[in-house]
Specification:
Blueprint: E1 3-7, H1 17-24, E2 29-35, H2 47-66, E3 71-75, H3 78-89, E4 93-97, H4 102-117, E5 121-125, H5 147-156, H6 196-201, H7 206-218, H8 224-227, H9 240-244, H10 250-259, H11 266-288, H12 310-318, H13 324-336, H14 341-354, H15 359-369, H16 377-386, H17 401-408, H18 413-418, H19 438-443, H20 459-476
Parallel strand pairs: 1-2, 1-4, 2-3, 4-5
Helix pairs in contact: 11-16, 13-14, 14-16, 15-16
The structure holds flavin-adenine dinucleotide (FAD).
């Protein structure tokens, strides 16, 4: 009978072990994607990722059609729908590539057992991560809480497997099955359609992922160690949304960045790999702490006196805090669905420390607006910045947005790009417009409080308030 390949975070045909194994069986192959937004399902995708999913499914359907494999779309409870497709197609096998978010793991484990009980052959494969998060253990058998020993252990271990190519074309046709229409899922925004800037910045799908990787390897890769920290240029790979949807695998990235180009300094290659391994580390943490996006990893932070402040939150979300580097980051996020890592740290620090707003509120905003929103990395990184995480940045280390701006966006090009109302301001005041003399502001065509906000909090006072809150927390512990 036919084989059903259930696609989830693996919207690609190359290095897709489940798909290749199904094709190798010589049976008809049915590809299935389920939009599951029921209670038990993985966290519902935010707006930016729904936009991406639509386009990535369009691309996947075309690549599968070229292999003579139909893509069946269903929406509703995954367990029921996988069974319904198995029954309708009279399939005797179901294959999938593993996923690592806790609700996904729970569904897959149960479904695997139930299908096997009914005599259906089920197999799962790797692809999303280089290392099974459950299998990496410390010398004493526990899980890693600190990144560096985690990296060292992986670096000294077995290197990742080689990626495989696309499967051959299937000759044995599957019979027609009922499918939803993608447009009926209404994944794209309509009123208002905010996706223009995102569409200009990205090409979802497997071909887009490879173009992105090729551009990186031919370009900024050979200066990555230094360039990755500078938001005013394209110094990073921008692979994160492609990885989040599994349009490319970390195995492929690992192999390509070894093979090409030979002249890349080992420092650049190693620094890049260490970032890929940060993603692995985040999944390792999530596996051992399934409520990573909901609860403080360090429970002492449960006593943190977070503030409720709707106006400040809204100013942060809209990029209207009066701190140019923060506002540029939040606007880059809104316009393009992505933010540079250095600036993610700055804006997250600003929310949790200067504004003393709970990191979970920031995590949730990122979840809705990032095209690369990831259940492990987003939660782990928010907790890292907030100070509540494993191996976290200490809470008392409070980023100074002016210094961060002048160090990492030296000429202010990043600010000028995303906060155009400051474009005519000189380099000297680009990170601190409130310090500029009135005649400098007026020459740049800016009236503070009208064209661009004054700072919503005073840096020194906000800093002190955060330190005081932290002191109370420590006294309570
Ligand atoms: P590159 O510098 O080219 O790195 C290559 C790859 O390594 C990335 O695609 C990513 O998969 C991985 N990586 C790099 N840095 C990190 C990191 N610090 N943690 C985990 N993986 C990393 N990344 C996400 O993928 N999804 C998120 O939801 C997410 N939320 C974040 C929230 C905050 C508050 C912070 C500070 C960081 C967050 N990151 C998240 C990590 C990082 O900012 C992005 O992975 C990175 O900016 C993606 O751009 P890139 O692909 O060009 O990165």
């Amino acid at each position: 009978g036919p084989v059903v390949v259930w696609f989830r975070n693996d919207l690609r045909v190359k290095d897709n072990l489940a798909l290749s194994k199904a094709v190798d069986s010589d049976a008809p192959v049915i590809a299935l994607f389920i939009l599951d937004e029921t209670a038990r399902a993985p966290r519902k995708l935010g707006g930016a990722r729904r936009w991406w999913l639509h386009h990535s499914l369009v691309a996947l359907e075309a690549s599968l059609a070229a292999l003579n494999i139909p893509l069946i779309l269903k929406s509703g409870e995954s367990e029921k729908l996988v069974r319904a497709v198995v029954d309708e197609s009279k399939a005797d096998s179901v294959f999938w590539n593993r996923r690592y978010d806790p609700p996904g793991i729970a569904i897959d484990t149960e479904l695997k057992a139930a299908l096997k009980d009914d005599g259906i052959h089920v197999e799962s494969f790797d692809g999303q991560l280089l290392h099974e998060p459950s299998k990496t253990t410390t010398g004493s058998g526990g899980h890693y809480k600190v990144y560096t020993p985690f990296w060292r252990a992986l670096d000294a271990g077995t290197p990742p497997r080689d990626p495989i190519g696309a499967p051959r074309k299937v000759t044995n046709n599957a019979k027609d099955l009922s499918s939803d229409k993608l447009d009926d899922w209404k994944l794209l925004p309509t009123k208002p359609d905010w996706s223009g800037g995102i569409a200009d910045s990205w090409t979802p799908g497997e071909a887009g992922a490879w173009k992105c990787l090729d551009d990186f390897i031919a370009g900024p890769f050979d200066a990555y160690a230094e360039g990755r920290d500078l938001p005013d240029r394209a110094g990073t790979s921008r692979m994160s949304p492609h990885l989040a949807f599994g349009e490319i695998t970390p195995y492929q990235i690992w192999a390509e960045t070894s093979r090409r180009p030979k002249e890349v300094a080992s420092e650049d290659r190693t620094t890049y790999r260490k970032e890929i391994v940060w993603r692995e580390f985040s999944y390792h943490l999530l596996f051992h702490k399934p409520d990573l996006a909901e609860a403080n990893y360090n429970a002492a932070f449960d006593a943190m006196p977070w503030r409720q402040d709707k106006d400040a939150l809204r100013a942060w979300q809209r990029g209207m805090t009066g701190y140019p580097i923060v506002d540029a980051g939040m606007r880059q996020l809104w316009q393009t669905g992505w933010m540079h890592n250095r600036v993610r740290m700055i804006v997250a620090s600003f929310l949790t420390k200067h504004l003393l707003i709970d990191w979970r509120i920031g995590e949730d905003w990122f979840w809705d607006t990032l095209v690369d929103a990831d259940p492990a990395s987003n939660a782990a990184q928010w907790q890292w910045v907030a100070g509540s995480g494993a191996d976290a940045s200490p809470y008392f280390r409070i980023f100074n947005p002016m210094l961060q701006g002048s160090k990492f966006d030296q000429k202010g090009d990043y600010v000028r790009r995303f906060v155009p109302e400051l474009a005519k301001l000189s380099d000297k005041y680009i990170q601190t417009p409130w310090e500029a003399p009135t005649e400098v502001l007026s020459r740049a065509g800016i009236t503070l409080g009208k064209d661009y906000p004054r700072p919503i909090v005073d840096h020194q006072k906000a800093r002190q308030r955060a330190l005081d809150a932290y002191k109370k927390l420590k006294e309570a512990a």
